[in-house]
Amino acid sequence: MSDILNLITQISDKETVDFENSMEPKRKERVTSLILTKIDTCTNSTADASISDISIDDNIVTNKFIQSQNPVRILKKKKWLAGILAATFLFSMVALAANDGSWDIRLMEYWNLTDTTYLSDGAVLIDVKSNQDNHMSITAYSSIGDKNNTAIILEVDITDEKSDELLNLSEKGYFLFDSNDINLQTKNGSPANCGYGSCLESFVEDGKLYFLLTINCENINRLGINLILKDLYYETEAGERTLFKEGTWNLRWTYQYAENVKTYYPFKTANCIGINVFITKVEVSPISISIWGIRNPFSNNEKDQTFHMPDSFQINKILLKDGKESTDFEPSVSGSSNNMFLDSSVILSTPKEIGEISGLQIGDTKIYLN
Amino acid sequence: MDDKTLLQLLQSDAEAGIKAALDLYGGGVETICKNFLINLPEQDLEEAIADTFIKLWQNSHHFKPDKGHSLKSYIYSIARNTCIDILRKQGRSFPIPIEEINLTSHIDIENDFIKKSTETILHHTLEAMKEPDRTIFILRYFYLEPIAKIAARTGCTSGKVKNILYRGKSKLEAALKERGISNE
């Protein structure tokens, strides 16, 4: 049987009635104060201590590029960064399509990045600490992404006996917050004008709890990110949820990405198994290479009109600076073609420095990137 | 203050905009949240009211007053959805007796076609209702207003309100059955 409440949810916002407009004055005062406190913790402007109970002034930091950091610490982070870069890329491609929200973790496993320690261009080291609440604080310490996507590592620091408990629990389930409000704001504090998606996944390594936060939002660069995380829960695979740490943790900073895509305009014709394609643009990032081209319909060797374009217009090899050639990549799920314009991408199996790549082979044509 | 001015104020000066929105719609949002969160602590109620206005502020760029929707109904919908989220999170059911909301037939609202058809039939049924029947129906089933309060507001007895609700529900079920949307 169905119920009327489920049905009536279908009616649109146009169906409404009038209610009493005035609120109880004391409640109005409390609610106003509550709203302003919440909004204040969301905005990028300097926090006003008289409004906000939580002191977060110290959290405003300047992003530092990873090159200036301690090499030992960098090495450890690089593992993550390579993984999150890959995760970020997939995140944008699957457009939040996964129902269980665990694409990023799966991707990290898929890439098998544990032994990989490449310095990925575009990684930004940040050091944003939350407030301390109930012997727990959270640090956002690295982010990577581009102008539309970012992935951020959050490290949870627990200083009481609960920290030992983590080790016992980590194998059997996962951690989640009761609520994780993610607000993106422009410089003047108003909400960002982008329909954004996000995903927060926990994992434990070396007895430490981490969260991988991925955010997808058009033109995210220079936006203020404000996280309000409330009450940390532990959930078993069977779905039993227990409160692990009660509290509210706030983090905020301004997102800034480091340019991690290099664009080339080769303007060279490649022969792709019987089709001549004029390569107009190549974009190289540490984890992917994309190519764009225009099909030459007048080329003499194009006879087979039934030719399946997406299979033919693709990168066959990557040419490296040291003279070697690599086929260590997978075709991307993206890519399109019509009668004239073509594009396709590959995702590198192992992230590479952009500078390592000297060219590509498309069809049987080698194209050097200068 | 009209909707457009309020939206502009929310975008240019959050604090002034929120205060103005609270003046205009605070009472309505409070009533809706009270109806839905009747058994929850005051703190949850005030959080829900606050969250409604924060969501309004966050989404003020997206609401287009020229598209035929009123800001009031938009805010009330945010309040309603915020409360439903809270109930779901806490594993609570709607504060309304099951026997009152049950329909005698099954409707597969997961099916997109049926969902769309149901929406149309609902609109037609509501349009065809006379006042105060329509208002009573929406107040009870969309905003969970208690029957006693509906009775006081409309000047009907509680018995009459129940009767109107029963009639409305029956009309709706009949319309759904007639169009093959529901089955026994």
Structure commentary:
The complex is a heterodimer of chains A (370) and B (184). With 370 residues, chain A is an alpha+beta fold. Chain A contains six helices and 20 strands. In chain A, strand 11 (268-272) and strand 12 (275-284) form a beta hairpin. Chain A starts with a helix and ends with a strand. Mean pLDDT of chain A is 68; it is low at 41-82, 86-122 and 302-310. Chain B is built from nine helices and no strands. Chain B has helices at residues 3-12, 14-36, 42-58, 71-89, 98-101, 112-128, 133-141, 147-154, 158-178. Chains A and B meet through helix 1, helix 2 and strand 5 of A and helix 2, helix 3, helix 4, helix 6 and helix 7 of B.
Rg estimate of chain B, integer Å = 18 Å
Beta strand count of chain A: 20
Low-confidence stretches of chain A: 41-82, 86-122, 302-310
Kindly report the average pLDDT value of chain B: 81
The number of helices of chain A is 6
Please bin the fraction of helical residues of chain A. 10-25%
Task: Write down the CATH topology of the largest domain in chain B.
Answer: Rna Polymerase Sigma Factor, Chain: A
Gross CATH architecture of the largest domain in chain B: Orthogonal Bundle
Domain count of chain A: the total is 2
CATH superfamily of the largest domain in chain B: RNA polymerase sigma factor, region 2, helix turn helix motif
Q: Please identify, by name, the CATH architecture of the largest domain in chain A.
A: Sandwich
Helix content of chain B: 55-70%
N-to-C series of helices and strands of chain A:
HHEHHEEEHEEEEEEEEEHEEEEEEE
